[in-house]
Amino acid sequence: MSPAAPAYPAAPAYSGQPSYPGYPGGYPPQPGYPQPRTPSGVSAIFAGVLGVLGAIVAVLFFVLFVVAVVLTLRDSESIDSVVWAIAFAVVRLVEAVLLGWGSIALFRRGARGPVILAAGCGASILFSIMAFMRTLISDDQLNAGQLAGSGAVSVILAIFPIATMILALLPATRRWVAAPR
Question: How far apart are CA 79 and CA 168, in angstroms?
Answer without folding.
Answer: 38
